[in-house]
Amino acid sequence: MSLHLRRAEARDSPAIHRLINAAPLDEVGKILRKRFGEPVDLPDIIDGSPFSIVASEAGNDEELVGFLALGNGPPPYVDNDEALAGAGTAVSTTGRSSDWTKWVQRNFDCPADIQVHNTKFLRFLIANPAHATAFIHEALACALDQLIHTRTIAYFLPRDTPLFAPLNAHRLDKRAGTPSTQGGAGGKKPHKLFTDVPLAVPDGNFRMLVCARKHVAPVLKVRRARVEDADDLEPMFREQKLIGNKDHRDIDLAALLDEQSDAVKTLVAEVDAQVVGFMTIDSEIQQESLIETFHLEPFDNLMKEPPKKQKAIVVVRDAASPPATPSPVPEEDDYRLDPLEDPRLPILAASTLTPASSRPSSGKPGDVDEAAAAGMDTMEPNERSDVSTPTVAFEEPQSPIVPPRETTAEKNQRIVEKRPNAFCVSLFSIAAPYASQAQQLVKAAFSACPDRDYCVVTTATVAAEIPLLRTFVPVPARRGMSDANVLYVANRFNVLDTPVITIARAKEEDLNDVDTFVDELQGQDDLRAAFRVATENQTGTIPRSFVVRTATPTDGPAAVSVSGEPLAGQLVGVVITTGIDSPEDKKQWTDQFEIADYTPANLAFVRAVLLNPLFVSCSRWVLEEVMRQTGLHALLHAVPYAVESENPTVVHLTDAATQALAQREFVPVRPRREIAFPNNMRDGVPVPPPLPCSLRILAAPLLYERKVVVNTRIVVVGASDCGLGFMDKLAYNPHITFTNLTLISTNGLPFTERDGNVPYVSHRCFGTTELVQLGLPDHVRIIRGTVEEVDRLARRCVLEDGSVVNYDHVILTPGLQFNTMSMGTGAAAIHGIYTMNQDEDQDALDVACEKAREGRFVVYGRDMQAFAGVEMLLERGVSAHEISLVIPPLRLPMSCFNNAVIDSKVRDVMHALGVNIHDGYALERIESEYGAVAGVVLQSPSNKPRKLAIRPVHAILYADDRSVAPGTFRVINDSCLVFDGRLVIDKWFSTPDPAVFAAGTVSKYASRYQTTWEHSLCDSREVGATLGDLMLSRFDQSLEVYKALAEEVSKDAALDKKAPPPSPLQFTSAKKTVALLAGDLQYFHFDKPSLASHTLEFRAQQADYGRDLVLDTLTATPNGPTGSYFRIHVAPTGIIESVTYLGKQRLPLGNILCLYGMHEKYVNNIVSRFDEGIISDFASFLEEDWALPLYFDRFGEFAKDLDVELHSLREKEDPGEGAIAEVLDTLAEQLDTGVQMTDEEQRALYKAFDCASGRKALDTKVFEYVLECEIYRSFP
User: I need a surface site. Which of 11, 120, 147, 761 has the fewest CB within 10 A?
Assistant: First the structure.
């Protein structure tokens, strides 16, 4: 049976423990300790390992059959007597956390190529005996597929302990799938996966066993292509649809292989004489076009000086070769422009780096490897790179001098004098099983072009990122240029198996180099100060600063002078980290962000990561080394959104280079919903304020996690809650990174005033704090503007200023607006009419209220915003007697409150305050004088029409029916999209144009669905998130949920047009409304989605309605309302479905929302306590200590765990007992039949459950959950 492998997570610990406990007890107690030391802390192993994997049988993910974890250094149990770095030295500071290679080479006669950068250590392994052999082979193959630079996996075992299964398994013959043997068919002993390394000291306590990459993964041999390879390539090309695809012309393989020249070369990669990879490179590229389109300044515009101007030397040679004769290299500036920020970032000049390749050179300047000169017929990068390590020679550094700035003419002349320094990959293909080794083809390409230092690849934005680009760096396009393609660049140093840089703890002597490195950077003074402070405080377990330099002789490529003397490497990077000073500070971060989902401990913040652009592709390895040398499990990066803050942990703004690196390498961390504690006191301690920043994390298990990079241009039009929900779903997907996500909105992101404390109706999809902590500007390019045209043919959005935003998919999510055109012709031209749209006309309205002349303020509309508009005027100092609220007749059965009691009480409060209410009147005309509003004439549409004139009128506030804004309608209409009052879509948010989607209140279902359901009746955030899931299913189907969604979409698309359409999508999240009404009353309501025709009165008449728990003490007085109205609706199943509140007290809305979908028994038997008359005030009752754990964001998971535990206890019960089984069966029968149990039956059921033997296990679960909530004083 095939195995399903995935990354291990901390939640897998119980299943791994079950796998361990399945072995005999003597193995668990003795053998396991010998194999992996003691104690075995599985969560710590998983959180701290850069690679850990679990396996299960296909179709059964619950039970694991194997677990393997790899570490970055030797495990702790091998050095009890001697520290890895030498006797008497603490391991925590200089052992596994530093260069352990000296210890290994001193104790074992191991090859010199076992280095920090290419070796991983087996930290833990357990497997089901029935699957052990298959698991070890698949797990090692998967590990080496992910860890592309790893050549060796090592393991330490006590000398007297035999190698155990499955590590003693035989290697598989990769061709036949059978154990490989020495001597071929001669019958010698089979090869082992792990082989012993000879001891260098006779009294060593441990054996070292190694597994080499070439014994597990196939070795690619790269050579020049021949015409006869066409037949071998054709099957691979057909499989990848490069030929035989009706969408594009077939590639003539024979002609392509035959037409090779000095500029165009074709390479093939083969395994066991079978061609599995193909690459065509061309050294004649469109240089000027690339320079004009992309920011190539950090790469010297892919140019270099001609040989006659070369002055300095850098050569690559064998470590054992004599010093090379000096050879000139191009003269270059010491500084290059960084496109991510201006001022400039100092970088190592590209042309001062030798044209290094994977082959060792003869040491003579300009020599080319013989194999390459002969046509690369025998190139084997993996084998040749094991022979020796190349070294890099630099000219002796002089004191850093900043060169004078060039004039434009001088710069242009210098560019003209340069020559191309890059080649491109014009065609590439590789079989899927070998995709991770695509780098070998790139190395071979550099060897075929020894005079070029850069390789470039351009791909269409709609194309998925290929494995070839793992070592390439994306280059941003220039503003205003075409972005239909994405440019990737790789320097020849990026593809070496041996890294050309080394990371070390900073010292005082590094300060001068760092001062020069950050010169002219944004915030350079802050960076210098932070580096000095960090360097002076390099104490404890977390070093504070690191320097990145070109590698020294002991770490691969070395910096040496022209005379052959070793020199300190050139500074090419700086890393500054800060620790978390106290448990209280750490708790503030873990309480407000989902850090615990990645790792619970060993955290530090990254203050700055600055790297030379040539080495940006090495940034992940730099961060891995920082984590290894500090013993950290994760690095955090905070992006604050306020310069001034009382919180000292977020006062430093991030420089642009660090922010760009964090966007590329780190994973965004979602904010957590915190419990709103009464009086903001948690166990007598004030709750810290929200952190005004977003957060990213790079945890050890994520170091080699492959994320799908999507360059598709997705443009979202409109920052409605639906649009925000869509972007939130895409930005926080853990498996996909979207690099071209754009939001076009008139006012940008609506950060402010979204929590219902202002007189604008909110649906509370996103709170202000949540939006800040989500940090969408860190993921989305935000354009403030208005779309004037959606050009479907050119696939671009044209803005009002004439600028253009290109798209591959456009998502239309503008909200509905109040429009004065609905008041009649000419109303828009009259001064003094204001719409109640948020962020519109507010300044003018403020002026009107301050300079009010004699006259009334008329608020017109039946929308809830009209009622909130009355409070808006009262807050602005307008007298209640000067306010007239005109409520037109209802067009739908449901009023804005959908509750007759609330309708009556809101009107009573306004009457008591002195507000004039005209109910049932419609606007007939507006009177104006000198272009300004002067009066209104109303008419009652009853059987006896009555007219009412209000004069004089100072201003009209309009808040009646919301509709599609005129500008939005014009864009939709001009784009020839179907419009029927709203933009028409199908079930899957699609319009007739497959590149245009729409969602939210602006849309409606096509008439063929014959439904009155629409998105405006549902929670907008859920609608947007569902559209996000649909978009994600187009790019990644590795998860079952996305795969199933894609299959459902394809199934619906294949339906016959005459067949009945599928039913619309069902949304289940609560529809929420928050408003501030007259009398400073807070209105809050949530309910499950329902049709507009299903009024509260209609639903109350249904047999399955349930019951309402109502406490009403709200009274209207001239001095303001007193008391409150609180209603809780409980379904017949006991589930709380709706809550309505109206009162002056400000409820913790986040807490109350947690009640949706919760059984009333969880809420302290709220129904029975209400019936007994114990509860006098729901607000106070729900703020008591017992209720606080219900609002903890882990409560849903806890309830699911209880359900799993219940069914587990049922299975463990003895046949004679069965109390829990009886309880579960009775409850299931009740749910199926809908018959309510009597009080006596309920008491009997509770008694049977209390007497069950598994009751204590459930009580333990509850106690552990309460402890996790950390409300200790409330629950002693």
Answer: 11
Host H or E run for residue 209: strand 206-212
Instruction: Please name which of 728, 598, 617 lies closest in space to residue 667, comparing C-alpha atoms.
Output: 598
Q: Is residue 202 reached through a cis peptide bond, with omega within 30 degrees of 0 on the bond before it? A: no
Count Cβ atoms within 10 A of the Cβ of residue 1017 and give its class: 0-12 exposed, 13-18 middle, 19 or more buried.
Answer: middle
In terms of Cα–Cα distance, which of 715, 712, 711, 710 is closest to 796? 715
For residue 168, what are the CA distances in angstroms to 136, 162, 191, 192?
A: 10, 9, 10, 6
CA distances to 33, 418, 514 from 412, in Å: 68, 10, 31
Query: Do 627 and 701 form a contact (C-beta atoms < 8 A)?
Result: no
Beta-bridged to residue 937, according to DSSP, are 925, 949
Cβ atoms 338, 606 nearer than 8 A: no
Query: pLDDT tens-digit profile of 911-933?
Result: 999 999 999 999 989 999 988 89
- Pairing between β-strand 833-835 and β-strand 953-958 as defined by DSSP bridges: parallel
Contact 1002, 1027 (CB under 8 A): no
Q: What is the pLDDT of residue 1131?
A: 94
pLDDT at 1090: 92
Spatial separation of the C-alpha atoms in residues 311 and 351, rounded to whole Å: 11
Q: What is the pTM of this model?
A: 0.85
Which of these ranges, 92-101, 740-749, 816-825, 1052-1061, has the smallest mean pLDDT?
Answer: 92-101
Residue 905 and residue 1125 in contact, taking contact as beta carbons nearer than 8 Å: yes
Quick one: tokens of 606?
């990254």
Instruction: Please state, in angstroms and rounded to a whole number, the distance separating the CA atoms of residues 116 and 555.
Output: 9
pLDDT-above-70 percentage for the chain:
81
pLDDT level of residue 376 (50, 70, 90 thresholds): very low
Mean pLDDT of 658-670: 90
Helix, strand or coil for residue 935? Answer: strand
Show the tokens assigned to 917.
């209410």
Is the per-residue pLDDT at 394 higher than 60?
no
The overall longest dimension of the chain from CA atoms, in Å, is 112
DSSP 8-state secondary structure symbol assigned to residue 920: T
Residue pair 1160/1134 in contact (Cβ under 8 Å)? The answer is: yes
Is 331 in contact with 314 (CB distance < 8 Å)? no
The stretch 597-618 carries a mean pLDDT of 86
Distance CA 659, CA 639 (A): 8
How high does pLDDT run on average in the chain?
A: 80
d(CA 71, CA 50): 6
Cα(1272)–Cα(397) distance, rounded to whole angstroms?
Answer: 61
Q: Which amino acid is at 505?
A: R
CA distance 441 to 279: 7
CA-to-CA distance for 553 and 549, rounded, in angstroms? 12
Phi, psi of 318 (to 5 degrees): -65, 150
* Alpha-carbon distance values, 948 to 825, 923, 925, 943 (Å): 20, 10, 11, 16
- The label of the residue with tokens 């950090």 reads 298
Q: In what order do the strands lie in the sheet with 559-560?
A: 316-318, 390-393, 559-560
Nearest to 88 by CA among 78, 79, 100: 79
Q: Is 841 left (phi over 0), alpha (psi -120 to 50) or beta?
A: left
Q: Could you list the beta-strand ranges (E) of 584-624.
A: 603-611
Residues in the chain: 1276
Both tokens assigned to 1185: 């200590």
Instruction: Measure the CA–CA gap between 932 and 923, rounded to whole angstroms.
Output: 17
Nearest to 900 by CA among 1107, 1099, 1179: 1099
First to last CA, the chain: 51
pLDDT tens readout for residues 719-729: 999 999 999 99
Please give the full DSSP string across 721-785, using - where no structure is assigned: HHHHHHHHHHHT-SSEEES-EEEEETT-S--SS-SS-SSS-B--SS-HHHHHHHTGGGTSEEEES
Higher-confidence residue of 811 and 194: namely 811
Q: Which stretches of 37-158 are DSSP H helices?
A: 42-48, 91-94, 101-107, 132-146
